[in-house]
Amino acid sequence: MLSYAFIILHVSILLAGFTGVLGRLITVNEGLLVWYRVMMASFFFWLYLLATKGKIRLPIRDVLRIAWVGFLLAVHWLLFYGSIKYSNVSIGVVCFASLGFFTAIIDPIWSKRPFSALEIGLSLLTILGIALIFHFDTRYQTGIILGVLSAIVGAMLTIENRRVGSDYPLMTFLFYELLASFVIMSLILPIYLKFFPVATIVPDTRDFFYLFCLASFCTVGMFSLQVEALKRLSAFTVNLSYNLEPVYSIVLAMIIFHEAKDLNFSFYIGLALICASVVLQSGIHYVKHKRAKLQKAGEPKKF
After folding, report:
1. Residue 296 belongs to what H/E stretch?
2. Which residues, at least 6 apart from 108, have a Cβ–Cβ distance to it below 8 Å?
3. Residue 14 lies in a domain
4. What is residue 216's DSSP assignment?
5. In this structure, is residue 301 part of a structural domain?
6. Residues 215, 172: Cα–Cα separation, whole Å
7. 267-299 as b/e, with b when 16 or more CB fall inside 10 Å?
8. Maximum pairwise Cα distance, the chain
């Protein structure tokens, strides 16, 4: 059954990789894209909870606590899809890969724990890779800046998802997180569209289909498969495997949009540094995890 668990895990990672591709295919601007995504996804999560008889009701205090995470999610997605629309999928995803560096900086401050020089050092490889792309490819500087800002907010979101989300059933937490994002986006969208006007707020049939796929398969479906994988695999294995998401996104973008012809040599050098950072961090975490398991297995049993 482990092989089945790994298959559904990688299907969920593939679906996550498709989010950037769909962000490029959808023609509405990033504000409307995020608004439609969180609206539709929160509705689908509600249907999921009804179908599985999951917990839906939460005290208002808990809802307001989760709303803060929903705000971070809305800002993160706005910046991420803005990055893709001002550059391309590969650039946006590569910049998002700097999330590890910002997490290594922000997490110790928020958690009041010592900094890890090793984590910061390895994450600096990612920053060096992005700097190479930024310096030598001036066409996409706006997209790169938005992508790095997306990674900063994404690091905050990752930390808060772990801190707040651990107190609630996962799918219930995600429902309220997305619902809060929808409410927040509904409040700020009129102001956003005033500064970034559009011809129409109603997506055409093609956009609606892609938005449906983004909200259903790449949001609810992705998390549902992740939950299913977690029943058979450790959280460590799942989190480590998700390091492949940027790779999946870049490969998909190169196949679908032929982005390889738009990327210069500095991009591939930068990408190589980022991949090296991910591989080294994954390897170190794996060794630490195995060592911790061996130490735990060697401890005398308590009766």
Report:
1. helix 265-298
2. 114, 115, 116
3. yes
4. I
5. no
6. 16
7. beebbebbbebbeebeeeeeeeeeeeeeeeeee
8. 71
Q: Please give the residue range of the domain that contains residue 79.
A: 2-296
| Region of 258 on the Ramachandran plot (φ > 0 left; ψ -120 to 50 alpha; else beta) | left
Residue 223 domain-assigned (yes or no): yes
Q: Tell me: the pLDDT tens digits for 96-150?
A: 877 877 887 888 888 787 877 777 777 777 778 777 776 656 678 899 899 989 9
CB 45 within 8 A of CB 171: yes
Residue pair 174/118 in contact by the 8 Å Cβ criterion? no
pTM: predicted TM-score of the whole model, two decimal places: 0.85
CB 153 within 8 A of CB 75: yes
303 domain-assigned: no
Residue 131 burial class via C-beta count within 10 angstroms: exposed 0-12, middle 13-18, buried 19 and up: middle
With 0-12 CB in 10 A as exposed, 13-18 as middle and 19+ as buried, what is 238?
Answer: middle
Based on the structure, what is the number of domains in the chain? 1
What span, in angstroms and rounded, lies between the C-alpha atoms of 47 and 28? Answer: 26
Taking only the tens place, the pLDDT of each residue in 240-274 is: 677 778 878 888 988 898 877 766 777 788 778 87
CA gap 277, 263 in Å, rounded = 21
Contact indicator for 5, 237 with CB cutoff of 8 Å: no
Distance CA 144, CA 130 (A): 8
